[in-house]
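quick one: magnesium ion bound model?
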Amino acid sequence: MDKHGIKELLPETLKQPLDGLLSFSLIDALKLIHSPPPGIELHRLATGEHPAQQRLAAEELIAHNLSLLKMRDKVQSQPAPLLTINKQALSHFLDQLPFELTSAQQKVSQEIAADINKPYPMLRLVQGDVGSGKTVVAAMAAIQAIANGKQAALMAPTEILAEQHRINFEQWFKTMDISVAWLTGKVKGKAREVQLGRIADGSAQMVIGTHALFQDSVEFNDLGITIIDEQHRFGVHQRLALRNKGFGDNQTAQNSLAPHQLIMTATPIPRTLAMSAYADLDCSIIDELPPGRTPVETAVLSNLRRNDIIERVRASCIEGRQAYWVCTLIEESDVLEAQAAEVTASELQLMLPELSIGLVHGRLKPREKLEIMNAFKAGEINLLVATTVIEVGVDVPNASLMIIENAERLGLSQLHQLRGRVGRGATQSHCVLLYSSPISANGSARLKTMRETNDGFVIAEKDLELRGPGELLGTRQTGDMQLQIADLQRDAHLLPQIKQAAELLIKQYPQSVDPLIDRWLGNNQQYAQA
Ligand code: ADP
Ligand code: MG
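yep, here:
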């Protein structure tokens, strides 16, 4: 401890993994930053790249990493139900699927199966590009829990997605005598009582819903596994809050086992970023699409070509295929966005009188939204005009044309999600990105990336480069991390070393762990406490 009461918490041993970063002691780094000596390279100081600042950034990142690792340890020190693999139930399920699993699906479900066959909670993130088939993998995990007499819960971020899961699971589980309960914010009154009752008395083995599932009034009988779909829609903080919930607070008293946790996301996260934001999770990647899919062809066109595109929609729908037309706005306003989509829909209807056109936006009642989605799925609607509510998870294989208006306004991962709504069947699919001039350099770089690749991981790396981690992980997520000195984008190159250093500290200097977390996260330890 020096005379200012500042204690060096990074031991000499870390010099190895932190290669060069410890050329400044903590106190020297602070002194330099507070009163820069003459002759210092000011430009490096301004960008935060001076070794003294990097020294502090590294320490801060280590502290964050430690808090996530600590939280993981805390979770895994609780007992969880050991769920053995039930070959019979599994083959029953697989036999009724109209396809074989891809080898990536097999590999990832084996990783999950092995994890939950242990007496402490699984904490696993499954990353799989849009359309890679995460839902069956989730179903297999649920079956393993249910075959062991436990309940499984699946939470989706939107009503549309939750409903789609419900339809799939009810169909799959019908022949297996597994009963499915259903809970979203819109399930009210008597119907809600019924569902809550079935969840509490265990007569529902599979529970599907939105975040309503984790409200206080929901009591599970014996929850064995929690599955969170499309996690990128939830912030880190929300994820941790859900985890708390899943921990047994809302299980009946006689059961104190913590459920296993499976988290799925279609937003591929660059490896370095995953290391820091998800240090508490094991990671599996479904890195293969089901066979028979032809990669979507993407064109970037000026808005001035709108009429040509409308003709293309006509031709495609007359051939029996279906199309999406996505309207976007700069402002995040449900009302304005809905209005814009309404205007576009009536305009398109005037120009395409022979087509049946549907409209979905965030202002519709969930039931109305569902009716339209179901009609689209059934082929009764040729062209679906939508706001970006359509983004996640919607699965209509016959849709093969995606038009996105003002595509230059959207981020890469959102564009990639939207494009992933097509290319789900065997026919060649197309995506048309319409832009209006003038277009920023950044916007045009995004559109170029979309035209050049369909690979979600390449797109994620590019997104990180163009927009930074805040946009990529969702502002809420990085906002939650509340970094004071470090910057995930600027300091991304440090992350592999950080991970190594954090692991080493836990092993060899456990006494430094809490003080480090305390120093950097202080009273704001949502990580450590979750
Ligand atoms: P996502 O990973 O985006 O959630 P889904 O689970 O919705 O993907 O699967 C997309 C579509 O692919 C669904 O229609 C699903 O039935 C189908 N599918 C999943 N796995 C396979 C497979 N191995 N072979 C063929 N089709 C598959
Ligand atoms: Mg999905």
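Residues 99-102, 105, 128, 130-136, 266, 290, 393, 395, 424 surround adenosine-5'-diphosphate (ligand 1) (CB under 6 Å).
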